[in-house]
TrEMBL record, chain A:
Listed NCBIfam families: phosphate_pstC
GO MF entry, a single one: phosphate transmembrane transporter activity
Family named by the database record: Belongs to the binding-protein-dependent transport system permease family. CysTW subfamily.
Cellular compartments annotated: Cell membrane; Membrane
Organism lineage: Archaea, Methanobacteriati, Methanobacteriota, Stenosarchaea group, Halobacteria
ABC transmembrane type-1 domain segment(s): 105-322
Gene Ontology CC terms: plasma membrane
Organism: Halorubrum alkaliphilum
SUPFAM superfamilies referenced in this protein's UniProt entry, alphabetically: MetI-like
Membrane topology, as annotated: Multi-pass membrane protein
Protein name as annotated: Phosphate transport system permease protein
Function in brief: Part of the binding-protein-dependent transport system for phosphate; probably responsible for the translocation of the substrate across the membrane.
From TrEMBL, chain B:
Pfam family for this entry, one: ABC_tran
GO terms (BP aspect): phosphate ion transmembrane transport
Keywords annotated in UniProt: ATP-binding, Cell membrane, Membrane, Nucleotide-binding, Transport
Keyword Iron-sulfur: no
GO function term, MF aspect, one: ATP binding
UniProt entry tagged with the keyword Nucleotide-binding: yes
Name this protein carries in UniProt: Phosphate transport system ATP-binding protein
Domain ABC transporter: 31-270
Organism this protein belongs to: Halorubrum alkaliphilum
Length: 334, 275
C-alpha cells in the first residue's frame, strides 16, 4: 500500500477503532438485556410445562418427553379425556375428586362474551366519535383520558363491581325479575371486564380509523354523504381489519383478566346459564388455588399449571390472530 | 412544454367541431361567485373573485401552483367546510341561490354538484358499489340501468361490464379515475368539478378523460382545474386565469385567453415566462 493513504478512511489514528469498540460494547449490553427477557420467558415456559406434566403424567417433563420419544408407554394420572370431557371440577374432594376443566372454561367464556357485548359496541362508537366527529381539541383530551382508564389497577375495578355494579344495577334487575343474586355474579363480572376493555377497543380502533386516507372521506362527502354515512359506510369498512384486531386484543385481555373478575364473579365453578349466579373463571381458580392452601407438589398445586397452560394456549392463539389482522391492515393503505 | 403530437391532432379536430355547435347556444349562467374571499386562518387564498360560469360548457381554471384554484373549486360545493381553519366571505350563487345562505344544506348541495379529485380515490368496494354509493346515500335505490348508464357515461362500461363485483381498487389508474367520474355522474348532478383529474395519469389515459369531458358537457357543466395549458386549450370553452394571491386576473373565451389575452401577466403566464 502506498504511504499517502487518506487517513480519513482508515483507522490509522485509532479513533475509528475506539468508536467501534464502544459500538460493540453497547451491542453486548443490549444483548444482555434481551437475554434476560428471553431467559425469564423460557423459565416460565419450563415451569408451566413441567408442572402441567406432573399434573397429567405424574412425572417430570423431561422424563415424559424422553419416554414418548423412545416409544415407551407413559401412563396418565389424569387423562386428557377426563380433563376436557369429564364430569365436574372438584380438585380437593378427598374421596372422589373431579378434574373436568369445563366449568372454569365456561366461566371464562361467559365473562368474555358478556364483556365483548359491552366493550365492542361502546368502544367502536367511541372510536368513531373520536376519529370522525370530535374536534381536534376534544380528541386531544379524550384520548389520554381513555389511557388513564386503561391504567387504573384492575383490583379497583373489582371493588367498583361489588360496591357499585352489583348493588346498583344487578340486584335491582334481579329483584325486578324475581330471581336471587349473590354479591359475586356473572353479570357484574362481565360488565366490569367490558368496561375495562373499552379503552383497548376504542384506542386501537381509533388508530385504524385515523389511518384511513382523507381522500376516501372527501370522495364520499363530495357525493353528498353525511358524517354518519361516511363513518359507517366508508371509514368503518375501510378500517375493518384494524378494528377486528382491537376486538381480539380486548377479548384476549378479557380472557386473561384476573383480579377484577375474581372479585366480581366469584369462586363457584359451575356450568350456569343465568347472569345472576356466581361462577369461577380459569383465572379466578388460579387465584383460589394459590391462596396458601395448595401445598407445593400437591395435585391442587399442579392443577394450577394445567389450567394456566390451557389459558396460555388460548391467549396465544388470540394473539397470533391479532398479529395476522394487524399485518393485513398495515398492508391495506400504503 | 412537450406536446403529444398524435393526441393533439385527434383532439383538436374533435373539439373544434363540438365547439362550433356549443358556441351557438347563448350562455346561461349556472354558477357565479360575487366578491368572494377565502381565508385559511389569517392567510387570504382567494382575493375578491367574481365570475359567472356558463351552463353546459367546460370552464378551465388555470394559474400557478398555490394561487387558489383548488380552494375556489372547493368553495363551490362547500367542501371547504371540512377544513376547520377555512373561512369564506362573499357569495357563491348556484342557480340563483347563495350556497352560503344559512338555509343551504351542504350535503344537499353536494348532491347537485359532483366532484372528481386529483388522485383517483375509489372506495375499497366493488365497482358496482362505487357507482351506486352516491344514489345510496341519497336514499335512492340504484338499478342495474343506473350502473350501466353511469359507466357508459364515463366510457368505462365496455372495460368492466363483466367484472362489476370486483374491487374498484383492482383497476388501472386511468380506469379508477373514470370510475370516479362514473361515481360522480351516477346521481345525475348538474355541475361536475374536476381538480386536475388527469395529472396523476399517463398521456393515453389522460386523453381518454379529455374525450370524456367533451361528451360530459352535453349534459353537465364542467369546471376543471388544470396545470396543462394544452389541455385547457383543447377542452375548455372558457378559461379563468388565477395568479398568485388568489386573484382572478382574466376570464374569457378560451380562444381569446390563449391567442389574445388582455392582461400582459396572463400572456406571460401562458407563454411560460413565470409560474
Ligand atoms: N387546508 C389548508 N389549510 C391551510 N392553508 C391551505 C389549505 N389548503 C390550501 N391552503 C393554502 O391556500 C393557498 C391556495 O391553495 P390551493 O390548494 O387552493 O392552490 P392551488 O392553486 O390549487 O395549487 P396547486 O396548483 O398546487 O394545486 C395556498 O397558499 C395554500 O398554502
Ligand atoms: Mg390544487
Amino acid at each position: 500500500m502506498s504511504t499517502d493513504t487518506d487517513p480519513e478512511i482508515t483507522s490509522a489514528d485509532g479513533r475509528v477503532a475506539a468508536d467501534q469498540r464502544r459500538d460493540r460494547l453497547v451491542q453486548g449490553g443490549l444483548f444482555l438485556c434481551i437475554s434476560f427477557t428471553l431467559l425469564t420467558t423460557l423459565a416460565i415456559f419450563w415451569v408451566l410445562f413441567n408442572e402441567a406434566t406432573h399434573f397429567f403424567f405424574d412425572g417430570r417433563f423431561s422424563d415424559v418427553v424422553v419416554s414418548l420419544l423412545t416409544g415407551e408407554s407413559v401412563s396418565q394420572r389424569i387423562t386428557f379425556v377426563e380433563f376436557f370431557a369429564g364430569e365436574r371440577w372438584d380438585v380437593t374432594h378427598s374421596i372422589n375428586p373431579g378434574y373436568w376443566v369445563g366449568p372454569l372454561v365456561w366461566g371464562t367464556f361467559l365473562i368474555t362474551v358478556g364483556a365483548a357485548f359491552v366493550s365492542i359496541p361502546i368502544g367502536t362508537l367511541t372510536a368513531l366519535y373520536l376519529s370522525e366527529y370530535a374536534s381536534q381539541d376534544v380528541r386531544k383530551y379524550l384520548k389520554p383520558g381513555l389511557e388513564i382508564l386503561a391504567g387504573i389497577p384492575t383490583i379497583v375495578y373489582g371493588f367498583f363491581a361489588i360496591s357499585f355494579i352489583t348493588p346498583w344495577l344487578i340486584r335491582p334487575a334481579a329483584e325486578l325479575l324475581g330471581v336471587q343474586t349473590r354479591s359475586a355474579n356473572v353479570a357484574a363480572g362481565a360488565i366490569v371486564v367490558g368496561i375495562m376493555t373499552i379503552p383497548i377497543v376504542a384506542s386501537i380502533s381509533e388508530d385504524a380509523m385515523s389511518s384511513v386516507p382523507d381522500d376516501l372521506r372527501n370522495g364520499a362527502y363530495a357525493l353528498g354523504a353525511t358524517k354518519f354515512d361516511v363513518s359507517l359506510g366508508v371509514v368503518l369498512p375501510a378500517s375493518v381489519s384494524g378494528v377486528f384486531a382491537a376486538y381480539i386484543l380486548a377479548i384476549s385481555r378479557a380472557i386473561g383478566e384476573t383480579m377484577a373478575v375474581t372479585i366480581a364473579a366469584g369462586f363457584t365453578p359451575q356450568i350456569a346459564f343465568s347472569p345472576f349466579v356466581e361462577i369461577q373463571t380459569m383465572t379466578a381458580y388460579m387465584v383460589d388455588a394459590v391462596r396458601g392452601e395448595a401445598v407445593v407438589g400437591s395435585i391442587r398445586y399442579q392443577s394450577l399449571f394445567a389450567v394456566g397452560l390451557l389459558l396460555f394456549i388460548i391467549t396465544l392463539v388470540m394473539n397470533l390472530l391479532n398479529n395476522k389482522l394487524k399485518e393485513r391492515y398495515r398492508e391495506e393503505y400504503r | 412544454m412537450a406536446t403529444q403530437e398524435p393526441d393533439d391532432k385527434l383532439i383538436s379536430t374533435e373539439v373544434s367541431a363540438d365547439e362550433t355547435v356549443r358556441n351557438e347556444r347563448p350562455d346561461e349562467t349556472v354558477l357565479a361567485a360575487k366578491d368572494l374571499d377565502v381565508y385559511y386562518g389569517e392567510d387570504r387564498a382567494i382575493d375578491d373573485v367574481s365570475i359567472e360560469i356558463p351552463e353546459n360548457k367546460v370552464t378551465a381554471l388555470i394559474g400557478p401552483s398555490g394561487c387558489g384554484k383548488s380552494t375556489f373549486l372547493r368553495c363551490i360545493n362547500r367542501m371547504n367546510d371540512q377544513i376547520d381553519v377555512c373561512r369564506v366571505d362573499g357569495d357563491v350563487v348556484f342557480k340563483g341561490k347563495n350556497v352560503y345562505d344559512g338555509d343551504v344544506d351542504p350535503v344537499a348541495l353536494r348532491r347537485k354538484i359532483g366532484m372528481v379529485f386529483q388522485k383517483p380515490n375509489p372506495f375499497p368496494k366493488s365497482i358496482r358499489e362505487n357507482v351506486t354509493y352516491g344514489l345510496e346515500v341519497q336514499g335512492k335505490p340504484a338499478t342495474e340501468g343506473d350502473v350501466e348508464r353511469a359507466l357508459r357515461g364515463a366510457a368505462l362500461y365496455e372495460e368492466v361490464h363483466d367484472k362489476l363485483d370486483t374491487s374498484g381498487l383492482d383497476l388501472s389508474g386511468g380506469q379508477q379515475q373514470r370510475l370516479c367520474i362514473a361515481r360522480a355522474i351516477a346521481p345525475d348532478p348538474e355541475v361536475i368539478l374536476m381538480d386536475e383529474p388527469t395529472s396523476a395519469l399517463d398521456p393515453v389515459a389522460a386523453s381518454k378523460i379529455e374525450d370524456l369531458i367533451d361528451t360530459l358537457v352535453e349534459e353537465y357543466t364542467v369546471i376543471i382545474v388544470t396545470h396543462n395549458m394544452q389541455q385547457a386549450a383543447r377542452i375548455s370553452d372558457k378559461t379563468a386565469v388565477f395568479l398568485t394571491g388568489g386573484e382572478l386576473v382574466e376570464f374569457d373565451d378560451t380562444a381569446t385567453i390563449f391567442e389574445n389575452p388582455a392582461d400582459s401577466r396572463v400572456e406571460d403566464y401562458i407563454t411560460g415566462k413565470f409560474g
